[in-house]
Amino acid sequence: MRTLLLTVACVLSAIGAKAQGADVEILDSRIRTVEFRHSEAADRTTGKVPQVVMCHLAAPETLTLDFDMIGSETETLYYTFLHANREWEPSDLMDMEFCNSINRFDGYDSHQQSFNTTTDYVHYHIDISTEPLTASGNYFVDVYSVSDDRLLLRQKLWICEDLCGVESEIEYVGSRQRLRVVVTATGMNISTPEEQLQVDVWQNKRLDDTRRLTTPTFINGGQASRSATTYTYTDIEPLYFEGGAEWLWADNRSIRNVTFGSARIEYFEPFYHYTLSADQRRPYTYREDFNGGSWIETQDRTDDVTVSADYSIVHFSFLPDDPELLRTHQFFVIGDATGWTPTSANMLSPNYDNISFDGQYLIKQGLHNYTYVARKREKDVPRFSDSVGSYGQTENDYFIAVYVHLPQDTYDRLTAFKTHNSMYKKR
Predict the structure, then answer these.
(1) Would you say 80 and 142 are in contact if contact means Cβ atoms under 8 Å apart?
(2) I need a labelling partner for 276 at 20 to 30 A (CA). Which of 49, 133, 232, 412 fits?
(3) Rounded distance, CA 97 to CA 92, Å?
(4) Torsion, CA 6, CA 12, CA 17, CA 19, rounded to 10
(5) CA angle 67, 107, 112 (to 5 degrees)
(6) pLDDT tens digits for range 268-302
(7) How far apart are the C-alpha atoms of 56 and 186, rounded to whole Å?
(8) What is the SS3 assignment for 50-92?
(9) How many CA atoms lie within 13 Å of 124's alpha carbon, on the beta-carbon side?
(10) Which tens digit of pLDDT belongs to each residue from 15-53?
(11) Residue 87 Cα to chain centre, angstroms
């Protein structure tokens, strides 16, 4: 058993010891498959796979946070809330200024051991209530181990107080999608919008490419305390997004039978290895997808999927159009299953023999969206143009968050939050 655990630890280290997603930071390498969602069940048949989680301040909810921890050891957990500013840095608010109870919540978690799987893991489920929160804005839900007060993961949460209106339009411009955003504020004296008003826009869960708008293109309306003023952001470079391509599918619901899109399945103790067919840039084709999401499911078992679905090492390979990219660019595979923020965990390695970028990741059984992005320099935001290509007609979700900080405010208030799918030109 000790040898097996050491083997698992070595494999985990090799495929990324500290993964980081778009809306969650994982600080324990054993943690996998983090799912944060509203309590109502999602439905993969209608494409409603959860993306970012926003709650209304006036309508508290109970959210669910689920994740697995590789191995058989169990932890007792607790969570806290941490208020953040609009740049996702901890704010200056004390706990009592945003939480109406002691900011430590115990006894909400439950855990189960995996059953009859080749990979041992413990599945954790935590119910998280937003009822104690009294201020809007950005939040971190921090999950700790009781035994040593060690921070295990940090999950982002948006709490909105619905004080502004938002309208948006999307236009296809060549290989890109251009947004137009109009914010309507009523009864708010925003005298210097470039300082007091910020609009964040991002595509799918690519928070690493958030566009922060501070200077409106047009302002219409009076500045009196009860009048409505509109702030329009249009035809500026930050509102042009690459369309990308429709997401690719990794279907490892069965680790015993080869399915469409996979080349082979092999077992090397202690993991099944699921090798996908090599990907490459192709002409645009529409296909339904989860916009990077995952849906945990298994065709091998009929038990509770949360503890009966197994893990396999999924092997990815991308064939670039230009072999020179092997030398000049870094490639990453992104999505819920592999992480959204480009790190060493989801970076692919150049394979000069096959003229490909190759990588592997430990993924739970299910339906998983993934795609490839590339960058030339370390500080660049990875793009689709050098990998899968970019097409204006690609279906994407956009998220718009509006922050206001007036002189009398002590924190950045989240005053509006909106989701806009590119299939609908105006919403």
Answers:
(1) yes
(2) 49
(3) 10
(4) -150
(5) 40
(6) 988 999 999 999 999 999 999 999 999 999 998 87
(7) 18
(8) CCCCEEECCCCCEEEEEEEEECCCCCCEEEEEEEECCCCCECC
(9) 30
(10) 444 445 579 999 999 999 999 998 775 555 555 566 899
(11) 17
Structural tokens at position 334: 């992104």
> Are the C-beta atoms of 66 and 155 separated by less than 8 Å?
no
Per residue in 59-112, pLDDT tens? 999 999 999 999 999 999 999 999 999 999 999 999 999 999 999 998 667 899
Q: Is the pLDDT of residue 137 over 90?
A: yes
β pairing state of 31-38 and 54-56: unpaired
Q: Give CA–CA dist 386/254, Å, rounded.
A: 32
Q: Amino acid letter at 97?
A: E
Q: How many CB atoms lie within 10 A of CB 395?
A: 17
Distance CA 415, CA 398 (A): 17
- Assign 3-state DSSP to the chain and report helix, strand, coil percentages, each to 5: 10, 45, 45
Q: Rounded to whole angstroms, how far apart are CA atoms 378 and 373?
A: 13
Q: How confident is the model at residue 14 (pLDDT cuts 50, 70, 90)?
A: very low
Q: In whole angstroms, give the CA distance from residue 242 to residue 174.
A: 9
DSSP of 286-355, one letter per residue? -----TT-EEE--SS--S-HHHH--EEEEEEEEE-SSTTHHHH-EEEEEBTTTBSS--TTSBPEEETTTT
Burial degree of 341 (CB within 10 A; 0-12, 13-18, 19+): buried
Q: How far is CA 257 from the centre of its chain?
A: 30
Q: Pairing relation of β-strands 54-56 and 150-160?
A: parallel
Given the structure tokens 């369309």, which residue do they identify?
Answer: 243
Do 28 and 144 touch, CB atoms closer than 8 A? no
pLDDT the model gives residue 17: 41
CA–CA separation, 322 and 324 (whole Å): 5
What are 31's strand-pairing partners? 69
Dihedral Cα 105, 108, 47, 288, nearest 10 deg: 80
